[in-house]
Amino acid sequence: LPLSPAARANATRGRATFETLRFERGHDVRVLTLPVLRNGALVEVVQVGMSLAQRELTLRRYFQSLLVLIP
Fold first, then answer.
1. This model's pTM is above 0.85
2. Is 49 exposed, middle or buried (0-12, 13-18, 19+ CB in 10 A)?
């Protein structure tokens, strides 16, 4: 996953970053970036990401249901 400028800056300060990244074709990924510190110094950056495709599908279906149910 790409490391955004904000995530990089936060990692150097020892702070986690929680953000949503948009990739080609509108694919969104929720990403948590965590700094790994040893003796107060940044030694690594760990990222965990999850696709938001299922969320988008659920919201689309919910919206379609509302369109049908609301006169």
1. no
2. middle
Q: What share of the chain is helix, strand, coil (3-state, %, to 5)?
A: 40, 40, 20
Q: Where are the alpha helices (DSSP H) in the chain?
A: 5-12, 53-69
Find where tokens 């990089």 sit: 8
Measured distance CA(16)–CA(21) in Å, rounded: 15
Structurally, the chain folds into a number of domains equal to 1
Q: Which residues are within 8 A (CB) of 7 and not within 5 positions of it... i.e. 6 or more apart?
A: 17, 19, 31, 33, 45, 47
For residue range 21-38, what is the model confidence (pLDDT) as tens digits?
988 877 899 999 999 999
Q: Which domain holds residue 16?
A: 5-69
DSSP 8: H
